Recover the amino acids of this structure.
């Protein structure tokens, strides 16, 4: 199933993982082209050199092309893999710090940080979808650009393009829960909700249902140490309290004040930590790209991120009908959310894209929270498309972590000013 895959944001530090994913499926993708595009020419050059070297070392029948204009990268594409950060890490640093001054968590996808990221990402995606309408109307956007669900919503409702929203968190969260519950590999969890806001009350081990109430009560729940994005101790504590399996980002909702204190006590934001490591990271990639058998760093965005995206592409291209947890239009899969909502649920992915599996109602302890987050996301997509400050304020007021009109207004004003170069719609 040779395909033309445009990679928008191909200079991203996550590209080595994507190439690993492609090489993993090299036989299925034989004859394919990776059309790489990025506005950061130097990063694009390093990554395409690495990609060509890895393809050559593997002996794969894959062509890597680089593009400095969007349209030729998109032309006749079968898939448009979007993996960029509008405004880059400097903008992320603002997303992580502006809300903190108001006592609200500073996180790139949750709360006001995610709100401003949406305002920056959506116009770029709409521009891509607009160009695709002319040069690649049947292509699928396979989107990693965050906030992936809001981006998916805006593109679906306002551009009508085919889009599937990805986030690989469910892969790692499933592994974390298997460890916490002391289960062997092979756990399948019915994650349901919204991106970075999923829950589960059903799971199976090799097809056999697990009694989660008993498992949560009986398991030793010995948590591993926390990483920047996953805190197994808090997941375990919350899972027991709610009687559910929870997403690693649930801490931002249920340990909010504690996280704010931690973030304030830390000298740097996550964006600053990444900015500090990136020069050495790209240097390592550039060095490896010159070697006959390149071994790029797996420090960030190593395996699962890229493999997941490539597997989804192969599932659509080859009509494989495989089960993945992805973001798509609800269509009744979650009874507690409107049919047009973008939800994150297990889907069967084949030629027609994702078909969500029926999940039922959201668990009561998190139903109201999830519904509120959905209303916030819907309004955020509207505000991001229309550049409407009135809807923007309504979106922030709808967010469950913002309980004060003055706080919402202060954050909105600070963010609109700080990000003005990336918000042409306002
Ligand atoms: C997790 C989230 C992604 C997010 C990433 C950030 O994987 O699911 O949506 O982009 O973390 O990782 P970083 O290394 O940039 O902090
Ligand atoms: Mn994610």
């Amino acid at each position: 199933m040779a395909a033309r895959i445009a990679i928008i944001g191909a200079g991203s530090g996550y590209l080595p993982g994507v190439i690993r994913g492609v090489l993993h499926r090299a036989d299925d993708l034989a004859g394919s082209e990776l059309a790489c595009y990025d506005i950061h020419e130097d990063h694009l050059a390093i990554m395409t050199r690495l990609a060509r070297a890895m393809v050559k070392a593997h002996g794969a029948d894959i062509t890597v092309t680089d593009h400095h204009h969007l349209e030729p990268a998109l032309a006749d594409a079968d898939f448009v893999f979007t993996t960029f950060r509008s405004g880059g890490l400097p903008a992320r640093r603002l997303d992580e710090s502006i809300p903190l001054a108001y006592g609200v968590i500073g996180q790139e996808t949750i709360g006001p940080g995610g709100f401003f990221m949406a305002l920056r990402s959506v116009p770029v995606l709409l521009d891509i979808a607009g160009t695709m309408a002319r040069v690649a109307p049947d292509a699928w956007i396979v989107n990693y650009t965050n906030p992936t669900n809001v981006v998916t919503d805006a593109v679906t409702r306002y551009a009508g393009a085919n889009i599937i929203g990805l986030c690989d968190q469910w892969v790692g969260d499933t592994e974390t829960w298997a460890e916490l519950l002391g289960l062997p590999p092979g756990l399948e969890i019915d994650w349901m909700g919204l991106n970075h806001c999923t829950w589960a009350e059903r799971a199976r081990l090799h097809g056999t249902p697990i009694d989660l109430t008993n498992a949560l009560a009986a398991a030793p729940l010995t948590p591993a140490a926390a990483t920047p994005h996953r805190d197994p101790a808090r997941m375990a504590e919350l899972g027991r309290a709610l009687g559910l399996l929870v997403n690693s980002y649930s801490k931002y909702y249920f340990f909010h004040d504690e996280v704010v204190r931690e973030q304030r006590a830390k000298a740097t934001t996550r964006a600053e930590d990444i900015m500090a490591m990136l020069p050495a990271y790209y240097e390592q990639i550039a060095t490896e790209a010159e070697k006959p058998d390149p071994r790029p760093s797996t420090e960030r965005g190593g395996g699962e991120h890229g493999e997941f995206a490539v597997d989804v592409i192969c599932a659509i291209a080859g009509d494989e009908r495989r089960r993945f947890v992805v973001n798509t239009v609800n269509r009744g899969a979650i009874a507690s959310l409107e049919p047009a909502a973008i939800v994150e649920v297990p889907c069967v992915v084949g030629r027609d894209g994702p078909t969500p599996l029926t999940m039922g109602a959201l668990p009561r302890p998190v139903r109201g929270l999830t519904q509120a987050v959905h209303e916030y996301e819907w309004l955020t997509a509207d505000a991001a498309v229309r550049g409407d400050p009135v809807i923007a304020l309504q979106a922030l007021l709808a967010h469950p972590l913002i309980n004060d009109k003055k706080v919402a207004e202060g954050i909105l004003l600070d963010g609109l000013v700080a990000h003005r170069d990336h918000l042409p719609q306002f």
The longest helix spans residues 112-135. Residues 18 and 306 are 4 Å apart (CA to CA). The longest strand covers residues 342-350.
